[in-house]
């Protein structure tokens, strides 16, 4: 799969600063994006009932639909750190606001990394010292994408043009990923002019079909956050065109996330067609893409379609007729009666498309995931991540 | 963990035959248990919507609460094999009935193994030829436990005495295990005298707290079956005492299943206490025991308790107060503030007990599972199982 290389379309009026403030080691761990004017903003957060302190605070700060800066650290998620953790996130927002002459609530904080360790807030505050000047250093959105990585093996970013306006998106994450109404960390910046209300509606629709249709290991993070800021510098845009561009970009980032999943060797796309409803199609597709036995089978190209039957059948609360289930592979979808031919398809392709036809109704859904390898176990067993 | 060695208590009036009929190779693959008199019987089956043909037929045969023989093959599950598969299972029951002068519906069939391959029924029928004589060969319940194994590394069996009566249980299974109202394959035989109705009630209650509280990889098999036969040869027993013995034995087998799970190195027991209800406690406990990130962490003794927080919080539709969650380990449960001490506990014990206190209500539940290792991936990626 092609990795992102260049950012073609850069929205006007944003500046970026990244640094290593030494939270864990000397790799990049702190990033700030600042808009020179107040920006309409929308955000979605994890539905995990245990949420990070940055999310508790971020929900307050996004409430009025306006932001002017976001500040993100990696290497520590500030989750399960109690009241002190909340105060730490507030301190970071206050410092950022003071340095940039903003109100505290114009700053949205994010943290990602290990859970349950006190945030080394002094290191972060030191990293923000003189921020106004530092923002002139010319860091790029690519740098920002790199600064927020945890176990990611490459920075994830992309851009789109909507007539006069530009849209940039970045994302991080490669484990603890089954987004529920939001995703790992992902940020979009545009100079298009859109109201906070519209921005919120568009973001919800797009996330449902992209990040919320991604599952890497069925574990829903406590820090999932997606934020979009629209500073209006490029003027108005056609909202349909904007939504389409945002969807396209979010999908590209979703695919990067699946492909760069911990230990993954394959991008696995599952289409469920003809379920009783879209909701049921999504449930069945998620059951397949989260099944360890399906995920291990595709890893080494075992044409073990019985496991797909099993995963369809185990889905709770959906209508299925076992006699009507059809399993197809590839694009265009093809039924393989020859198992060794199917094995070759599975082994030779880095991206696999599975189509399961249920012939019950007209509910279709597509989800994104990956295979399960020894390396996933190794990464998560031998190091605290 | 101690493996089962001897069977102390053998119920009267049952005989066993096992053989290799060459379904896949020359290892044991066929087993029959026969009661010399008709036995009260109860059974529970998988709730997967895709079910094996033996289950479709078995449900018909158990309907009147009486059985006299069960016939089980390993190496092929006869699942997703269409109408022919159903006819094959029927043929096997007919042959067994004819050899033993029974009615066809007094025979319950089971099959376990690969999904979606035609059952080599002729080999099985040949194996059953002359069954009446073969049953005199003196095979044991241990032999039967061995004949029904798939990826199991040791046969699982146990026995109990209830005053005058004896109870034997066997079980198999080590992957595709998240029983839903039933389990992999498990059979109990007793010479106690109990009505089919009572037997059914007792079995349901026992299974709920044992097999239905076990999850190895969250994948619900299409063949899960648990059957009990009570032939009455030892006369009546106190039903409370019988239920207690059955629970005790089923729990022992459940623990064997968890410990012998594919690739597992640790038996992992999770107690959730103080949830809003028993049902919510079970949901949360299952969320923890199925979390790949929790399972990989305990594998190498990573004291990464943040992942347990995450798994509690991601559980759908339950009440949780993050500030009240307490995580304790060991027996008696102990809070570890020193992470290296916790790591030692995790590394040094083959059986781990995690207690999560929620302090919301009085719902408690205990579930059984195991760690997730590279070997699990290897077993399921490199061979068709």
Can you give a write-up of this model?
- The structure is a homodimer of 385-residue chains.
- By secondary structure, chain A is an alpha+beta fold.
- Chain A has two domains: 246 residues, L-amino peptidase D-ALA esterase/amidase; 116 residues, Ubiquitin-like (UB roll).
- Chain A has twelve helices and twelve strands.
- In chain A, the strands form two sheets. In chain A, strands 1, 2, 3, 4, 5, 6, 7 and 8 form an eight-stranded mixed beta sheet that branches. In chain A, strands 10-11-9-12 form a four-stranded mixed beta sheet.
- The model of chain A has no long low-confidence stretch (mean pLDDT 91).
- At the A-B interface, helix 9, helix 10 and helix 12 of A face helix 9, helix 10 and helix 12 of B.
Keywords:
homodimer; 385 residues; alpha+beta; L-amino peptidase D-ALA esterase/amidase; Ubiquitin-like (UB roll); 2 domains; eight-stranded mixed sheet; four-stranded mixed sheet; 12 strands; 34% helix; globular
Helices and strands in order, then pairings?
The structure is a homodimer of 385-residue chains.
Chain A: E1 14-19, E2 30-45, H1 53-62, E3 66-73, H2 82-100, E4 107-111, H3 121-128, H4 131-134, H5 141-147, E5 156-162, E6 165-172, E7 185-193, H6 196-209, E8 225-236, H7 239-259, E9 267-275, H8 278-290, H9 292-299, H10 306-313, E10 326-329, H11 339-348, E11 351-357, E12 363-370, H12 374-382
Parallel strand pairs in A: 3-4, 7-8, 9-11
Antiparallel strand pairs in A: 1-2, 2-3, 2-8, 5-6, 6-7, 9-12, 10-11
Helix pairs in contact in A: 1-2, 2-3, 6-7, 8-10
């Amino acid at each position: 799969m092609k990795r992102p290389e260049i950012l073609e379309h850069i929205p006007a009026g944003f500046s970026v600063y990244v640094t290593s403030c030494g939270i864990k080691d000397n790799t990049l761990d702190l990033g700030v994006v600042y808009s020179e004017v107040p920006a309409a903003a929308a955000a979605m957060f994890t539905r995990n009932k245990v949420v990070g302190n940055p999310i508790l605070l971020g929900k307050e700060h996004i409430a009025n639909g306006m932001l002017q800066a976001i500040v993100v650290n990696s290497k520590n998620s500030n989750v399960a750190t109690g009241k002190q953790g909340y105060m730490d996130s507030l301190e970071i927002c206050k410092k950022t606001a003071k340095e940039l002459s903003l109100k505290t609530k114009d700053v949205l904080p994010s943290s990602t990394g290990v859970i349950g360790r006190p945030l080394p807030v002094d290191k972060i505050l030191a990293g923000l010292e003189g921020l106004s000047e530092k923002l002139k250093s010319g860091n790029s959105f690519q740098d920002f994408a790199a600064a927020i990585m945890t176990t990611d093996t490459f920075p994830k970013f992309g851009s789109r043009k909507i007539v006069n306006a530009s849209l940039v998106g970045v994302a991080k994450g490669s484990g603890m990923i089954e987004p529920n109404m939001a995703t790992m960390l992902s940020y979009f910046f545009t100079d298009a002019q859109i109201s906070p209300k519209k921005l919120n509606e568009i973001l919800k629709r797009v996330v449902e079909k992209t990040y919320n249709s991604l599952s890497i290991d069925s574990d829903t993070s406590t820090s999932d956050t997606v934020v979009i800021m629209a500073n209006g510098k490029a003027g108005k845009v056609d909202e349909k065109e904007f939504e389409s561009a945002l969807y396209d970009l979010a999908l590209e980032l979703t695919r990067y996330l699946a492909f760069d999943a911990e230990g993954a060797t394959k991008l696995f796309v599952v289409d469920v067609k003809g379920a009783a409803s879209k909701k049921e199609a999504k449930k069945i597709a998620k059951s397949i893409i989260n099944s360890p036995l399906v995920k291990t089978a595709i890893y080494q190209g075992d044409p073990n379609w019985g496991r797909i039957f099993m995963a369809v059948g185990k889905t709770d609360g959906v209508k299925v007729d076992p006699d009507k289930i059809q399993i197809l592979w590839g694009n265009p979808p093809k039924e393989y009666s020859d198992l060794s031919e199917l094995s070759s398809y599975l082994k030779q392709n880095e991206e696999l498309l599975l189509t399961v036809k249920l012939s019950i109704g007209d509910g279709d859904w597509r989800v994104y995931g990956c295979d399960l390898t020894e390396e996933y176990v190794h990464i998560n067993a031998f190091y605290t991540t």
